[in-house]
Design brief:
405 residues, mainly alpha, Growth Hormone, Chain: A, 76% helix, membrane, transmembrane helix, MFS transporter, transmembrane
Length: 405
């Protein structure tokens, strides 16, 4: 099959399973540090300013992701050779990302942690850009909701397994980074080693220039609205999760916040797994995407409101289940919708890399908003109230996308 052809043959379960495993490598590499290792490491380095330190480190890492993801996507769109366009980026991005996690065991300053985390973000975002393009490259439109549901599960399963890995299987920041690095390296291998990646002919390579990265909202309004709605929902997600460990410690008052965090993640994951593949399959069968995205936005808004008005442990557990169910619907259906509004076949990875800015840029903006809110502008009720507002807007505005039902 031509690398640029629109796929028409359904992918098999083995292909989906291998893609899901390698996606798990990416998200375990991202979220294990963000949820557990970075907060603990920075609390030890700068105990009096842990919130600010975490905001700087995660914000700078996300800024690197904003730049790298579309750039790596554009380069993979132009990669020729017998190993294909995407697989080399997937393989080496994952392996070097694992190396970066090992290097994070070394820093003893906030600046050193920031440099190490930026390196990890660069490598894993190069990997993510190529993996994201696998769906429009290989999966027909009528199967994309279900496949997107399966590959969305690792986004939370990575949090669960990563948290268990560094709190139950091993203990300590150094052991945690080393265990995470091994897991990322091993999980990276299956998809690029055991699936096909159609090579790109040299005469099919798209042009490459700074203009490559500009997609006119006037010419492609649906793409622009898809980007905007993704940005808002992910901003809400980033605002709601950035300080979750500190929320359990300082607002809920749990004696064992690490265990509490693990319980919430498990509940959240259960909610997500209960909805994501089911919602994806139903949207495939009906051909409708937008109503599912709106529903997901409303459900996630309810979860944020619960945390804003009642910061207690029982409410936090309920909110985790509600949030997981809503986000599961969103992950599958919105991902499928976005693949249907990409401007060109020649720039799939680059265009999805631009969409992925809507995932990464909120990680830059969220610390700038959340840090001052938590410390001096109303605390966690205001933070989760803002989370509710932006998430709801992200769901409702999807109706501005006209070309998808």
């Amino acid at each position: 099959m031509s690398a640029l052809a629109e796929p028409t043959t359904p992918v098999r379960g083995r292909w989906v399973a291998l893609l899901t495993l390698t996606n798990l490598a990416v998200w375990l590499g991202f979220f294990t540090p963000i949820q557990v290792l970075l907060p603990e490491q920075l609390a030890g380095i700068a105990p009096g300013g842990k919130e600010t330190a975490l905001a700087w480190v995660t914000g700078l890492g996300a800024l690197a992701a904003v730049v790298v993801n579309p750039l790596a996507g554009a380069l993979s769109d132009r990669t020729t050779g017998r190993f294909g366009r995407r697989h080399p980026w997937t393989l080496f991005g994952g392996l070097f990302g694992a190396l970066g996690l090992v290097l994070l065991t070394l820093p003893r300053t906030v600046a050193g942690v920031a440099v190490g985390w930026i390196f990890v973000q660069v490598c894993l975002n190069a990997m993510l850009a190529s993996l994201t393009a696998a769906v429009p490259d290989r999966v027909p439109v009528t199967q994309r909701g279900a496949v997107s549901g399966w590959i969305g599960i690792p986004q939370v399963l990575g949090v669960v397994l990563g948290t268990i890995l560094v709190t139950v299987v091993v203990s300590g920041v150094t052991a945690g980074y080393l265990a995470a690095a091994i897991a990322v390296a091993v999980l990276t291998l299956p998809f690029p080693l055991f699936t096909a990646d159609d090579p790109l002919a040299r005469d099919e390579r798209p042009p490459f220039s700074p203009r490559t990265f500009w997609i006119s909202p006037r010419r492609h309004p649906d793409f622009a609205w898809a980007f905007g709605t993704r940005f808002l929902v992910q901003l809400g997600n980033a605002l709601g999760t950035l300080y979750l460990l500190y929320f359990l410690t300082d607002a809920v008052g749990l004696a064992d916040p690490d265990t509490g965090l693990l319980i919430l993640i498990l509940v959240y994951t259960g909610g997500l797994m209960a909805t994501t593949v089911l919602a994806g399959r139903r949207s495939d069968r009906s051909g409708r995407r937008r109503s599912y995205v709106v529903t997901s936005g409303v459900v996630m808004t309810v979860a944020a409101v619960l945390l804003a008005v009642a910061p207690t442990w029982p409410v936090a557990v309920v909110a985790a289940a509600v949030l997981g169910g809503g986000y599961g619907i969103y992950l599958a259906v919105d991902a499928a919708l976005i693949t249907q509004v990409l401007p060109t076949a020649t720039g799939r990875a680059k265009d999805l890399g631009i969409i992925n800015i809507a995932n990464s840029a909120p990680q830059v903006l969220a610390p700038a908003l959340a840090g001052p809110i938590v410390t001096s502008l109303g605390g966690y009720p205001v933070l989760y109230g803002l989370t509710a507002v932006v998430t709801l807007l992200g769901g409702v505005f999807i109706y501005r996308v006209r070309s998808v039902a």
